[in-house]
Amino acid sequence: MADSPLAGKIAPASMRANLPRLVTAYYALVPDPEVAAQRVAFGTSGHRGSSYNAAFNEWHVLAISQAICEYRAQKGIDGPLYLGIDTHPLSEPAAASAIEVLAANGVELMLATDDDYTPTPAISHAILVYNRGRTAGLADGIVITPSHNPPDDGGFKYNPPNGGPADTDVTKWIENRANDIIKAGLQGVKRMGYAKALRAATTHRHDYVANYVADLGNVIDFEAIRSAGVCMGVDPMGGAGVHYWGRIADHYKLDLTVVNPDVDATFAFMPLDWDGRVRMDPSSRYAMANLIGLKDKFDVGFGCDTDHDRHGVVTRSGGLMRPNHYLAVMIDYLFQHRPNWAANAAVGKTLVSSTMIDRVTARLGRPLQEVPVGFKWFVNGLMDGSLGFVGEESAGASFLRRDGTVWTTDKDGLAPALLSAEITAKTGRDPGELYRQLTQEFGDPAYDRVDAPATPDQKARLSKLTPQQVTSTELAGDKIEKVLSNAPSNGAAIGGIKVMSAEGWFAARPSGTENIYKIYAESFKGETHLRSIISEAQAIVDKALA
């Protein structure tokens, strides 16, 4: 799909979200359970949709919240529930709806002090800190966010007591129960008025910012950053971490400038993404245009998406780093600068991430675990310390504390962003320079991801592709060595296929949250070879979808 002529430009006022209309639709439209697009559907990271098309409305939130209460009761989860929201315009109305249900069900609810926004990693961190050493009365959490999606979307995620994204068996139970509740006209939903819910004896306040910031020094070497005088710039992109960065700078006495402290529910300050839509994607050169333009003012710069579970790093040497490039640099650095990590701690990657990671991991002598798309596959390894670092090509990552114990089991955008400053301080070179050094050692892969529209029916067919449906013996002139429909490390279905040769590969899978499919491809022979791989991949997918 061609880039929009508006990509990288600020949206004209006429294109910005109409907030009164959006919120009115949230309350006024009732989803039809017979329409697939209007049912509750948990993708790779929760239920998402727009209130305009009855895909994310009050009925969805009330039903999901009640279903979570019933799931907690069934599993004996009776500790506090940590609830956080991002800055999307539908997040606050959705939070009010959820609070009314959670309070009416007697849930011990932990809301942010001063009703502040709360990043996804701060929720995961709070759950894990509370549950440490406990075997009963465990905590869990909810994050109300559609991640980096456009302003007219809402989203709802559930994190069980392991602190990470809920696994499929959990989300499927919640999804089915929520849809049953909607079919029954919300019968069975317990609910009290919002003001009464806030006054309930079970509703409490929690200082997420103070707790997260004070503990962050156990993950990042701030003394090294401070001593080296690393000058940093950060663009919160109007997201949930907007009030965290100043607290981090003050607490650890850092030279860190927040280049845009504004919160605006229309995200009017955001340059439009590749398709001419507002999208807070820190891996997009268009969405990150504001910070890229300031790259020479800082030793290193970084940004995070709306719920701050994804990171983007901007260097003087090369501008915005591709997510795969920075993942490889983090892995190479961390496993040489974390002596207290277990000697056999592995690297975790999704199977659509760069083969550069495989090569770096092999040189480090570390095991590699390759799993399907979805951060849930990393949770257990992070919990027990058997995975030192985990990452995915869409700029999501987390890693252990410096002592080798768990930090978060969900994606954390802030820690990888700040690690770029530690890397710069300790090595004397920015991450862009270090990646170029890796390419001299391992080759310089060309990588791309192509998105294309797909109906729910087409997505379903693509997710069921099998190796037998790939009849080609060559990929862009090279012999096909493997065709996978299951991940190498755990045998789980990847929801698509991955086709591999000695010098390149592609993977095709439907999006779990949008009506698109994605082709990921990489070549160690260069850009021309990469384009050939993508062209052949699209032909294979088109044939499967025909």
List the helices and strands and how they pair.
Elements: H1 19-28, E1 42-43, E2 46-50, H2 58-75, E3 81-85, H3 91-104, E4 109-112, H4 120-131, E5 140-144, E6 153-159, H5 168-183, H6 194-199, E7 203-206, H7 208-215, H8 222-228, E8 231-235, H9 244-252, E9 255-258, H10 289-292, E10 300-304, E11 311-315, E12 319-320, H11 323-337, E13 346-350, H12 355-364, E14 368-371, H13 379-384, E15 387-392, E16 396-399, H14 414-427, H15 431-442, E17 446-453, H16 456-463, E18 474-475, E19 478-479, E20 482-486, E21 493-500, E22 504-510, E23 516-523, H17 527-545
Parallel strand pairs: 3-4, 3-5, 4-7, 8-9, 8-10, 13-14, 13-15
Antiparallel strand pairs: 1-2, 2-6, 5-6, 10-11, 11-12, 15-16, 17-23, 18-19, 20-21, 21-22, 22-23
Describe what you observe in this structure.
The protein has helices spanning 19-28, 58-75, 91-104, 120-131, 168-183, 194-199, 208-215, 222-228, 244-252, 289-292, 323-337, 355-364, 379-384, 414-427, 431-442, 456-463, 527-545, and strands spanning 42-43, 46-50, 81-85, 109-112, 140-144, 153-159, 203-206, 231-235, 255-258, 300-304, 311-315, 319-320, 346-350, 368-371, 387-392, 396-399, 446-453, 474-475, 478-479, 482-486, 493-500, 504-510, 516-523. α2 packs across α3 (91-104). It has a seven-stranded mixed sheet with strand order 1-2-6-5-3-4-7, with helices on both faces. Strands 9-8-10-11-12 form a five-stranded mixed sheet. It starts with 18 loop residues before the first helix and ends with a helix. It is globular, with a radius of gyration of 22 Å. It has 17 helices and 23 strands. By secondary structure, it is α/β, with parallel strands linked by helices. The longest helix has 19 residues, at 527-545.
